[in-house]
Description:
Layout: H1 3-24, E1 41-45, E2 61-65, H2 67-70, E3 77-80, E4 90-93, H3 95-102, E5 107-110, E6 117-120
Amino acid sequence: MDSTSSRRREFLGFLGFAALSVQLLPLMGCETESEAAPADSLAVTSSRASKLGDWAAHTHVLYVPLSLFTAPPREGVTLSSTRTYLHSHQVQLTRDQLVAVARGGTVLVVDLSEAHTYSLRLA
């Protein structure tokens, strides 16, 4: 067996192990860490998108304190989503977006890594 075939076989074995590991994360309790919803916040679930493809589709929850809608900071705010599959995302909201939601509008925002979309709307 030549060197190229050996490397290819090793890579495919590693790829299979990685795919299996990702599928087992929920069973190991690593899918979403136990994060309590903050009091007085809007909980927004992200899109299921994943840059890795459908096999790694997952969601995050973004908790937006309601106080940001009544007194939006001039510079906006950057919030972190909940952790899923050992990672989280940063979501930046501008003052104008917070004001639009406060006035009854719906705002779609993409996290800074451009992996997930969040639809913000006060019910």
